[in-house]
Amino acid sequence: MPKSRALLPQAERLRPALSWSMARLMSKRRLRREIGAAAVVALSVALTVAASMAVVCMVSQNGDAAAREVATPSLPAGAIIIFDSAEEAVSALEEAEGFEGIANLRRFPWVNADTRLGPLFVLGALDSVERGTLLCGPALAKEAGEGSSLEVWDADTGSLLGTWTVRSTGEYLPEGEYPEGWAWVSTDSLGHENLSGIAFDVTGDPSVVLSRVIKLSRSYPGAKVFMDGFTRHIVRKAALRAYLPWQAVSVMVALTAASAVSCVLAVSFLGRKRALGILKVIGATRPDLRRLVLAECWYLGYAGIPVGLVIGFALCKLGLSAPVPAAAFPASAVMGALALAGGALLPLRLTRNATCDQLLNNKAIYAFSNPSCAQCGLCGGF
Amino acid sequence: MNEWHGPILACHELSKFYAVGDGLFALSNVELEVERGQFVVIMGPSGSGKSTLLNILGGIDRPTHGEVLLNGRKYSRMSEDDLAVMRRRELGIVFQFFNLLPELTAAENIGMPMRLARMDERDIMSRVMHLLEVTGLTARANHYPVELSGGEQQRVAIARALAPRPSIVLADEPTGNLDSKMSQEIMKLFKRFNQEEGQTFVVVTHEDGFLDYADTLIRLSDGEIVERKVLNAKK
Amino acid sequence: MDLIRLGRNEIKRNWTRTGVALAATALAAWMLVVSHMIPRGYPWGVGQAERAFIGGDLVVLPLSSRVESRNGANLTVKPWEGRDWQSHALYYFHRLSQEGYISEGSLGWRAFDPREVMDLIKDVPGVTRVEPYVSLPCLVGSVQAILRARDALDAESFPLSMARFIVEGEYPGPAAGSGMEALFPNFGGLEYNLVGSSVPVRVPRLVVNPAPSSKDPARLVGGAFGLGLDWDNGASVVLEVSGKYRVNTNQVLEPDATALPEFPAPGEEARFWDRPEVFVTKETFQEILAQTQAAVDLNQLPTYELLISVDRMSEAKAIASGIQEKLGEGFQVCPVPELKKLQVSGSALRFQGLDAGGLLQVQGFMLSGVIVAGSSYIMLVQQKRKIGLLRVIGATGKDVVVYVLTIVGYVAAAGAAIGFLAAKVLSLWSLLASEITAAEWIKLTFIDFISVFGMSLGISLALGTAVGLWAARVPSAEVLKRE
Q: How many domains does chain A have?
């Protein structure tokens, strides 16, 4: 009695026998022969990449523009918190003493003032300011006239706080902009009785300090926080969020490209059914055929994505005159790859479902099912 | 693969039914056994089921009923991928239309089944060189199929089918598309491999010339075997 | 040769693929029509109570919402400097006081000259009435309230009249003979002031610091006025309570309702407005201003908020964006029902993204066009033999192009028609629910029809022609090829 031979181990079926180098060789030669279809696919991918890059640039440009053009207050202290009352400031100061990464913690008086230049926060936080001098940002100083006198009223009571000589901060704070709408006077000009603001310098990690400061300010309803880089951060985030729907544009481009790629690859699949059938006859398994399709996609992406990046870069630089963020390159490359992958889905399904018989004898192959009853071809196979 | 001493290829109660119109039996109750080293020729009029039989024997098509065994292993119910893995080692198939892979050269076409069978690259090279020499194609080794004549393409196809030293080679009208001079050459090639390497062949053909080399003749008509004749060509 | 009929048969034969193409086109058409159909506003009754209380369908606040200062103007995050009495902004943007807002230049939260802004808005279509928000803080006994100048509006011709929210008494008349009358809220500690009683009210003196650069008209629109308050030099006036009001913000009112619905409405939780505004007529307000000896005329008083009534709430958003365009970056224009929503997730830092709607609609048709042309391309590749056969029996290249265009054209037109009709059936419902007239609906239908069929057929036929030209090049020898 002859003994039956064991089936092949499953691993042999699942592991592609076709080497990558062989698959790439075959794909390269094939694409060279079908240069028209390959060009359409690569161009679709390139278009997706370029469109995605333009959108990413535009969104980030707007976010950046918003963040950049919001003047970051360059404060005389790393952070300033002002409160509605001196009691709040005292308890906040006690709390802030426990913070790590801050130094030079102090309290100062401030008033909410009205001037002919508009409302002004007047802070008595700099002892170095001469008495009778109001130190303000260059723009405000220019508007008021440097050296001119400015009447300052208390906005709440309407009483005149004083008439001070306007001086620009230029000499005190030569670098960085000065927050407009703010002015500084010597501490004793406002009196020591209402020390309702606290200020400190940041020595540690700003983001850690920021989060603690925000937490602190939340427990005082009227507290206002001013911290370097803080506003820029929120503004950028808000702007990016607002422009997010524009990503739908690049998603639509990617979908359109994927459909076009899908059609072209499906047609190319139709043209090579017999060749794929022969490959199966001489022993290629589904993983082998999949590798062949993927190698082809690799070449198409290899051609399309860099071209798209170049077009996109040129478009952003020349068309939009936008700075291109570094993240735009990988992001749009991924978008192009996704469009290609989306387009490859159909041929991959077809190679998966195709039997040797269907391929060799030009019978219909179905993308989503492979019904044996559907050989009449009435329900649209490939 | 040498442990098996039964018939290399066997089929029992093989039937194939096509649900077209009133229904048609392409094959009914075909019994066949092919021994090692045999040269079987299948003949019959058009539509007698020869090609269907060969497709089923090659694992390309599946029977409606019955079993096919290669080296004692049933494969008529195997999965597509198992069939492919089996074919790459044990079955060579030659078609009427030359069926070369257009993106590969003659040498690469011949080497492909051995590469799929994960044979050693040095063995592949020497085997390819040997087959090119035997088929007289050494000078055309680096030509693509479109650059070869019909006869040359068919010789490459035969070399490719023989390359991994399969247990059996199936050929479907291998000379059907060639002129008589080419056909002679192809037939000689079959004979040479059968007699020198002991290669087992099952050939579907109209060509009477094959009868000079064959051990067994099987005649099909309307899907049934109507004649089985042992020839003594080798003697 | 009757290739048109052949093409039609082909569509029917290859049903799955045609179905995908049809669905894609129909979806694109549907989306376009629906996006046109959705009224850019709100049904009549939405936010009715809020709108009546605020006194307008839209509000204009001196906030900046667009951050696109290509002209080089610096945008600065300003601390909030406003007070509750100055406008409804704080009521809606409740985080404003913590987060500040973005404004152009260095001028803080500001009052603006309403006349300048009203001039700009005048010509915007759909605007029926513009009124500045005029108010002062006041003390009714020890209760803080807001004294607001607002004329009695005839309830029949003005849907935003306060009349229907009066629970007792009536709105102060325009020329009250005896003394100064006021409509008091029936909440917030003021509910104990009975109708007919006289209530002493303390009002501060208003100090106006005019803009320094009033010579420059560009700066004046949205320019700076400091409105200061001087409580020491205010005046005490006696107001007679002519009526009491209460506003439930949670109700949708019927257009022809003249009185309050029975409330709390069944199954509805009543949410009452808690902003204590005491309404007086403009004459009364002017008289109070005179009593405080403030050197301002009511008609020239800078304001922090403008109230706009529109002729149709269904177009509220479109009108708001029209006004926003006129006013530029220094202002924010919001429909009041939208503000209501913002109260929940509102942030002072609001940016308006660019409108990508039109582009997305065209892209939708591009996508469907690619699918239509692509599926017919696949169909034709599978029928190369058939095209070869057509050539053999005498079809010219032009015939083949016609054959392809028939397939593409039928699918695109049928898909567009399905999507168009499906969307229009929906829009019949919107015709009932909104203020769109039948004539306008027909006009919109016509425009939709043109754009849907124009885009769908245009893009599909353009792509289909490329496919057709490819098919026309299929030689008759194809018929001989073994498949």
A: 2
Q: Among the residues of chain A, which ranges form H helices? A: 10-14, 20-33, 35-69, 86-96, 138-144, 187-190, 206-218, 230-243, 247-271, 273-281, 286-314, 328-353, 356-360
CA–CA distance, B222 with B46 (Å, rounded to integer): 9
One domain, residues A281 and A318:
yes
Q: Provide the 3-class DSSP secondary structure of residue C273.
A: coil
- Where do the structural domains in chain C lie, given as residue ranges? 3-39+356-480, 48-345
CB-based contact C378 A267, cutoff 8 Å: yes
- Say yes or no: B72 contacts chain A, CB-CB below 8 A: yes
Q: Which residues pair with B91 in a beta bridge?
A: B168
Question: Which range of residues forms the domain containing residue A256?
Answer: 10-65+244-374
Average pLDDT, chain C: 78
Is the ipTM value over 0.85, yes or no?
Answer: yes
Q: How far is A283 from chain C (nearest CA, A)?
A: 22
Measure in Å the smallest separation between the Cα of A55 and chain B Cα atoms: 40
- Secondary structure, 3-state, A260-322: HHHHHHHHHHHHCHHHHHHHHHCCCCHHHHHHHHHHHHHHHHHHHHHHHHHHHHHHHHHHCCC
What is the three-class DSSP state of C140?
strand
A244 at interface of C, judged by CB pairs closer than 8 A: yes
pLDDT at C453 over 50: yes
Radius of gyration (C-alpha) of chain C in whole angstroms: 32
C-contacting residues of A 291-350, CB under 8 Å? none
Tens of pLDDT, residues C206-260: 887 655 444 443 343 334 466 778 888 889 999 999 999 988 776 666 655 555 5
Which CATH homologous superfamily contains domain B36-61+84-230? P-loop containing nucleotide triphosphate hydrolases (3.40.50.300)
In a domain, A336, yes or no: yes
Residues of A whose CB is below 8 A from C226: 114-116, 118-119, 155
Among A183, A206, A240, which residue terminates a domain?
Answer: A240
